[in-house]
Amino acid sequence: MAGYKEHISVSGLLGIGYGSVASLLMGFTPTQGILAGVLTWIGGMLPDLDSETGRPIKELFSLTAAVASFVAMRSMIRVGTDPDTAILMAVVTYAAVRYGAAAILGKFAVHRGMFHSLPALIITGESIFLTYVSDSYAVKFLMAGGISLGFLSHLILDEVYSVERKGAKIRLKKSSGTAIKWFGKGLFGNAVAYAILLTMTYITLVESGILVPMQGVAPADQSPPVQHASPFETIRR
Length: 237
Fold this sequence. Notes:
Elements: H1 4-24, H2 30-43, H3 55-78, H4 83-108, H5 118-131, H6 137-160, E1 163-166, E2 169-172, H7 187-207
Antiparallel strand pairs: 1-2
């Protein structure tokens, strides 16, 4: 499988290209292009959140926690929260992701489980679309596309490194097929992943205006009240 340096190098180069195209050819601002490029770079590391403990994983959790805390603080300020509360929320978010999420994943997550899968890729993109604060759907899709592109690069790179060539012979390693997949081995992991995916997809479709929630329908035997003309009303011709 590809190493940590390979993943951050490939996703970093993709981020530079993605951000440049967004700002130079697609009409987005340079700041938006840079942010999209950074998210692409971060996305290339996210699947390894379920890996064994080590310095790269600690750095990845720290980076993810920092991004999450800034997003939380920006959202709080946007809805009119006072600065002190927004800063407190950022601190709480950082601690929850950096230590709480790390402890939970370290205990329950399995390396090359559903974190390395296409459902996880979709969930990641939808999470950014829903949490990135912007009045423009185009900007939200840009950011979601960036992190999804980086995530996908990680999965593809892992599959590429699972192919071993010895002379004219090509052999697949045991890790082949464990990155780009729709289902993992564990029933519980699959159930949790698809429950999150279906929920996130429904919320995303509603938020983007593609899907309209069903409204309550009045019973068929009830008709709107009939408004009778007042006997004192004068008809003008």
